[in-house]
């Protein structure tokens, strides 16, 4: 079970809901992924305008926990305002804190992310901050009391996969809360690797919505996350420099 705050989930794949070719493809992909947590940008939704198109109307919300995010925020204060808006709409008390500090790389601002996380925790939110793969920053966020940390594997939407597995493994080793790898995942192999490193979950969007067949890719990501987790729990064999016979040599007859 993946535990985030008071909530428990069977699936360890979290899915974004943006940039799908159509609402119908989005719905099929969500169902194929097996995801129980769906994230979306509050600023890109008309949550207070019932006459406007809304992807939420296309889904059975009883099956999912919504994770609004503060995408578009550039300061802690702006992120907090967006989070309050999401909470006021009655969507969920969980929030993904996203405060971008660089427009070119879309990397998060560490100072503003820490500040926003602290402010939202004080207001009683269940806070999941999106961070870079900075080991110390992840530690500081946990010390504040966040409910999960979400280090990026690579820049948002880049599809580069895990560019710094060493730092990611350091974050996982010292984690006191779930570590959910977020951003930059491009293929099922990337998702499986994140889980094999010991991550508690993977959040992705573009890798599915931008695929030639989003529905098939959603299913592939589901299986990859499950396989990676099973591999991590099973414990892989150590890497060796030289070959080792796979069959025992003791008791072999002389020919």
Automatic annotation (TrEMBL):
<feature type="binding site">
    <location>
        <begin position="183"/>
        <end position="184"/>
    </location>
    <ligand>
        <name>1-deoxy-D-xylulose 5-phosphate</name>
    </ligand>
</feature>
<feature type="domain" description="Thiazole synthase ThiG">
    <location>
        <begin position="4"/>
        <end position="248"/>
    </location>
</feature>
<feature type="binding site">
    <location>
        <position position="157"/>
    </location>
    <ligand>
        <name>1-deoxy-D-xylulose 5-phosphate</name>
    </ligand>
</feature>
<feature type="active site" description="Schiff-base intermediate with DXP">
    <location>
        <position position="96"/>
    </location>
</feature>
<protein>
    <recommendedName>
        <fullName>Thiazole synthase</fullName>
        <ecNumber>2.8.1.10</ecNumber>
    </recommendedName>
</protein>
<keyword id="KW-0808">Transferase</keyword>
<dbReference type="Pfam" id="PF05690">
    <property type="entry name" value="ThiG"/>
</dbReference>
<keyword id="KW-0784">Thiamine biosynthesis</keyword>
<comment type="similarity">
    <text>Belongs to the ThiG family.</text>
</comment>
<comment type="pathway">
    <text>Cofactor biosynthesis; thiamine diphosphate biosynthesis.</text>
</comment>
<keyword id="KW-0963">Cytoplasm</keyword>
<comment type="subunit">
    <text>Homotetramer. Forms heterodimers with either ThiH or ThiS.</text>
</comment>
<comment type="function">
    <text>Catalyzes the rearrangement of 1-deoxy-D-xylulose 5-phosphate (DXP) to produce the thiazole phosphate moiety of thiamine. Sulfur is provided by the thiocarboxylate moiety of the carrier protein ThiS. In vitro, sulfur can be provided by H(2)S.</text>
</comment>
<dbReference type="GO" id="GO:0009229">
    <property type="term" value="P:thiamine diphosphate biosynthetic process"/>
</dbReference>
<dbReference type="InterPro" id="IPR013785">
    <property type="entry name" value="Aldolase_TIM"/>
</dbReference>
<dbReference type="GO" id="GO:0005737">
    <property type="term" value="C:cytoplasm"/>
</dbReference>
<dbReference type="InterPro" id="IPR033983">
    <property type="entry name" value="Thiazole_synthase_ThiG"/>
</dbReference>
<dbReference type="GO" id="GO:1990107">
    <property type="term" value="F:thiazole synthase activity"/>
</dbReference>
<feature type="binding site">
    <location>
        <begin position="205"/>
        <end position="206"/>
    </location>
    <ligand>
        <name>1-deoxy-D-xylulose 5-phosphate</name>
    </ligand>
</feature>
<keyword id="KW-0704">Schiff base</keyword>
<dbReference type="InterPro" id="IPR008867">
    <property type="entry name" value="ThiG"/>
</dbReference>
């Amino acid at each position: 079970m993946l535990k985030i705050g008071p909530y428990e989930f069977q699936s360890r794949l979290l899915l974004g809901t943006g940039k799908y070719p159509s609402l119908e493809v989005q719905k099929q992909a969500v169902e194929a992924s097996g995801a129980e947590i769906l994230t979306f940008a509050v600023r890109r939704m008309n949550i207070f305008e019932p006459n406007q198109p809304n992807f939420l109307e296309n889904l059975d919300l009883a099956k999912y926990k919504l994770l609004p995010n503060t995408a578009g925020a550039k300061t802690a204060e702006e992120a907090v305002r967006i989070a309050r808006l999401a909470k006021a709409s009655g969507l969920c008390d969980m929030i993904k804190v996203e405060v971008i500090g660089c427009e070119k790389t879309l990397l998060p601002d560490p100072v503003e992310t820490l500040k926003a996380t602290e402010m939202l925790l004080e207001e009683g939110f269940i806070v999941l901050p999106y961070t870079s793969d900075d080991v110390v920053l992840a530690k500081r966020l946990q010390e504040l009391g966040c409910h999960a940390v979400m280090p990026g594997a690579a820049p948002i939407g880049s599809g580069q996969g895990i560019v710094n597995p060493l730092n990611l493994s350091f974050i996982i080793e010292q984690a006191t809360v779930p570590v959910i790898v977020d951003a930059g995942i491009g293929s099922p192999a990337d998702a499986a690797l994140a889980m094999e490193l010991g991550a508690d979950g993977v959040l992705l969007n573009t890798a599915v919505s931008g695929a030639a067949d989003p529905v098939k890719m959603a299913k592939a990501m589901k299986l990859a996350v499950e396989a990676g987790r099973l591999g991590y729990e099973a414990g892989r064999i150590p890497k060796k420099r030289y070959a080792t016979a796979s069959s025992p040599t003791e008791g072999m007859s002389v020919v």
